Amino acid sequence: MVDAGADLIVSQLFYDTDIYLKFVNDCWQIGIKCPIVPGIMPINNYKGFVRMAGFCKMKIPSEVSAALEPIKDNDEVVKAYGIHLGTEMCKKILSHGIKTLHLYTLNMEKSTLAILMNLGLIEESKISRSLPWRSSTNVFRVKEDVRPIFWANRPKSYISRTIG
Q: H helices of 9-163, where?
């Protein structure tokens, strides 16, 4: 793929940074010099982690399995562990000269944002942004933070509300 003109490689998600770093080193040894971006997916819950690991047929380090086993039924603790693990993985990767990270969010951005804040790559004050629509007066939609976009119905209206 690199010989065909690829500018970079994005890895499959993984939890064993040593295997990733060995892969990068092996690629450099045979002359592949383009960036090899690590795919990091924060662990948000145990069942989703096991399912994704099965889909990707990835090796799970024994220390990760051992850490998750006693907490697997507590989603909040699993998520906190996932943030810690993701942060430590990224620190190790960045300390080896890798300059780019690819974080798989799967529409669950809070863990990713926590990792980026832990790394000092973003500030919490920069995360919040105003929504591109007026708040609803409907009591059931007051806390709404996502709306579907019906491009075919109102493309100019949506664009005018989001510019700037």
A: 17-29, 46-56, 62-68, 75-95, 109-118, 155-162
